[in-house]
């Protein structure tokens, strides 16, 4: 079994910054893509940013230039640095990691979600 633990959410004023982390642990052989999604009340979950095993990144248009996704392969951890936060960034943020699990093949796991609230 694999567990994902997210941290770093909270309340921040517009223009502020937060850094989210998502650490994977368990029977991991190797990790493929590591992505961040978010879901605001009444809206569908959307892809915010992602990073491949080779380090290629992609971003939603709404966060380009403000958010940066990175990964530490030695720690099986993905980060999301969020700068210049706006009220419309308010949502629950989820990490999604695709990996090869020992004895269980290729799997995708979700983090538990962390609330980000941008408000004055």
Structure, explained:
This protein is 0% helix and 61% strand. It has 120 residues and is mostly beta strands. Strands 2, 4, 5, 6, 9, 10 and 11 form a 7-stranded mixed sheet that branches. Strands 1-3-8-7 form a 4-stranded antiparallel sheet, with no helix packed on it. A hairpin with a 5-residue loop joins strand 5 and strand 6.
Helix content, binned percent: under 10%
So what's the overall shape? elongated
Count of helical stretches:
0
Structural class: mainly beta
State the major sheet. Answer: 7 strands, mixed
The overall pLDDT average reads: 97
Low-confidence parts, pLDDT < 50 over ≥5 residues?
none
Report Rg. 14 Å
Estimate what percentage of residues fall within beta strands: over 45%
N-to-C CA distance? 41 Å
Assembly classification: single chain
């Amino acid at each position: 079994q694999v567990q994902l633990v997210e941290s770093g959410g909270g309340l921040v004023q517009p223009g502020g910054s937060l850094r989210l982390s998502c650490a994977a642990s368990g029977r991991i052989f190797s990790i493929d893509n590591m992505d961040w999604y978010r879901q605001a009340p009444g809206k569908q979950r959307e892809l915010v940013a992602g990073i491949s095993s080779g380090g290629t990144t992609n971003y939603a248009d709404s966060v380009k230039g403000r958010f940066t996704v990175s990964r530490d392969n030695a720690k099986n951890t993905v980060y999301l640095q969020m700068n210049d936060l706006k009220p419309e960034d308010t949502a629950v943020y989820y990490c999604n990691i695709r990996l090869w699990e020992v004895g269980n093949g290729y799997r995708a796991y979700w983090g538990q979600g962390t609330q980000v609230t941008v408000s004055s």
